[in-house]
Amino acid sequence: LDRLWMRPETWRRLCTAALLLASKVWEEEPFENAELAQLLPFSAELLQVLERELWQALDRDLSVSVAEYAKVCLLLRTLGSHELVDFSPASMSQLSASQLAERCAQLTADLTARHCQADGSQK
């Protein structure tokens, strides 16, 4: 993530890219970049560039292990305990973990096909 530093001039783009990739991993029917471009102040082309840059900065690995999920849930519960709102994300079942792993693998394959073929790189 060396080239994706969080700065005052880049944080919106970086957060948008992170949410874009996360929604494509987490949601069964995520928005397409063209649909999001109608709602956000970014073009579909820029969203694709942001998606590609973050994906490459993550070494093209979008997987989320059950252990990582549990760790983040614990952190969110801890942070949420200081708020008035009860924030208790659900534990991940074996089925949910399997479905998430499948979506991660499928999105990685889709991104590889889209971005690596477009720029002629291999991986």
Shape: globular
Percent in strands: under 5%
Summarize the helix and strand pattern as letters: HHHHH
Helix coverage percent: 55-70%
Biggest β-sheet strands, sense, barrel: none
Kindly report the average pLDDT value.
81
List strands and helices in order, with pairings.
Layout: H1 11-26, H2 33-39, H3 44-57, H4 66-80, H5 94-119
Helix pairs in contact: 1-3, 2-3
Based on the model shown, name its key terms.
mainly alpha; single chain; 0% strand; 123 residues
Describe this structure in words.
The protein has helices at 11-26, 33-39, 44-57, 66-80, 94-119. It is an all-alpha fold and 123 residues long. The longest helix has 26 residues, at 94-119. It is globular and about 40 Å long. The model has no long low-confidence stretch (mean pLDDT 81).
Give a short synopsis of this structure.
The protein has about 120 residues and is mainly alpha-helical.
